[in-house]
Design a protein that fits this description.
This protein is α+β, with helices and mostly antiparallel strands. Helices cover about 50% and strands about 15% of the residues. It has 15 helices and 23 strands. A hairpin with a 5-residue loop joins strand 2 and strand 3. The longest helix has about 70 residues. It is extended and about 110 Å long. It starts with a strand and ends in a 6-residue tail after the last strand. The N terminus is likely disordered.
Amino acid sequence: MGNQPIRANPKKSVFWTLFLSVAFLLFFAGLMLGIYFLNHRYGKDLQVEENGIVDLSTWNFHSRGMNFLDAGWQFYPGVQLTPSDITPASADEMNEGTPDLSYYSNVKITDDGWNNLGSKAVWNGTSDSEPNLSQTASGTYRLVVLVPLRTHNITVDFPEINQNARIWMNGELVRSLGGNFNDSNTFFSSSSDATITLPSAAGGKIEILISCTTHSTIAPGIACAPGIGTDTQTETLSILSKMWFASLLSLLFIIVITGFYVSLTFTHREKYYYFIFLVLSSLIYEFFDKSFNPLPGDLNVRMQITLYIIMTILSVLYFTSLFRSYRTPVVANNLPVDNAIILTALGVYLAVLWLNPEYSRHTEMIWAIVILVCVIQLYVLMRVVYMTIRSEEQDFFHIVSAVMSACILATTMVHMQPVVFIPLHSAGIMMLIISTVMYFTVRYVNANNKITRFTTELELAVREKTRNIAKVNAELLLANKRLTENEEARKRMMSNVSHDMRTPITAIRGYLELLLREGDNIDTKSRDTYLRNMHTRCMQMEQLIEGLMQLTRLESGDMDERDENLSVADLLQSLFDLYDNEARDTGKGIRLILPPEDALLTEGDPNHLLRVFENLILNALRYTGDDGVIEIGAERQGEIPDQQIHVWVKDNGCGIPETELPYIFDRFYRASNSSAVREGTGLGLAIVKSIVNRHHGKVWADSREGEGSTFHVSLPVRQPKE
């Protein structure tokens, strides 16, 4: 579509357009205020007694619903108290506090946590000077609540506690939230929620003690008033919150599908993509809310601010795309310039935020971006009004969308204490999606030619989806096959563990039963024999457990390692010297083959590699007859820089069946012809493989049943530094 002059539409008056714009603005403002006040956690009929106890003993939870503990708290700044720190005298007298500790009484729970304790908070300190709460890194909240005696299964929910916290109810630690209280590098939760149900309250009283620590948050401590009610009421709030977001996702799905086909009638389709990504960004924004996805440090705040800026950018681009085909001297000259200014300002803010993460903890930075976005949205709204009243083809829907977009972005960063988790801007998103669906439904309901086109394209889409489903089904079948193989391996491993553990346990139990049955009638020699056998069986179990633990530590990376330059030749020489005489005593022979004047240097943990070669040598000795010969050798293979050290341990023992070679490095696997040798746990070769893999090497075996086996280990050569 070429450039067209914009002519005034006589059916649209400037007054009427401005009137409707103001009307919609007031409507959405009223909607947002209504949601804010109706869906806010206010304590109802909270009676704070003179002794500081909140009296809800006359509150009927079943008929009047939940209540919210937003007032009457004590707050002890800078300390982490436990119930043992509360004296018996002060346990029933809230206003007496805890001796020798300063605290605030009559504290109100606010969105700012302990940065704002409410206007009625009273300082009860050992000195007249109050602490600077913005620099306080820890604190303790305390509240005593009286509830009806006949109320059971009282539930207290804490939607937002920043950051690490421990919750005591009636002197019992019921929940620990977050990570290490004192180490800012190890805590892992920026905020947490908790729902705690008490089967009954002792004497109709609930004493709540919450010790909090923060390292990086704008609103430290309790930032949302806890709710108190029955477990059913708390669960209902959770279900309603989930239903709300499920509805948003369903509507998003509808607008994506239907909007795609409607957008085929557009001259320029980018407006559709901007709109979809704007809605999608708003939902992703909710995913990074601390209640759903608590991230370390201030990542939640930074991610939400980033998405907030992305939403603003998408909004600007969306409303710019609506009028790209229409030009006036004012619009044609200013559209590229003002968009560049807006994007530059938002980009600079975003760069400063990510380069200086600590800025996200300052409320001034939050207010700065909110004010900037509000100014941008006001300008965008004025631009949309200006273009709409001068365009023949544009209609009032664009002004409605601009008003809703402004309301949504103006309320996105508003922090509230909701009863049901329905953020303010998500209500605007819901209305925006619904109005968009209704608008295009009404506009195209009678467009039969478009329906035919949509039907044809829908059939093509169905066939494409069918192919995708077939592809997915094939992938699922392959994945199912792999899962089945993994399950079989797991069952085989569990069977081997059970068998290896059951054998010594059965033997020990048999000896114990014999000792108990015979009593003093058994002779000393037999008793000693039984005890030695029991000790041997215990050693077998200990060896099995130790091997399994070592293998688990190796595979999980928990085992301590020290990488250093070492000589494989020296390791093999030391093992040869150790086992040579031992082998001769049994009639076996050991040969060592090493290259002359080559230390065969590699890099790794000497203890672990020593364990590898020792396991292979012991296996060779164990499965070789009295006249057997074991050959240990090493050599350098390949060309620089890809040289490898090849180590082999060869025997002429019983060998391994060819069909079982692929499994010999599995946990607890023992070859079928190894039953004559009762020693071992079936973990040695699994440990060998794990260690070699961690040293970036390879291990494999060659064997012929009845002729012997050769185990090979390949390790990278350490190249000398230039």
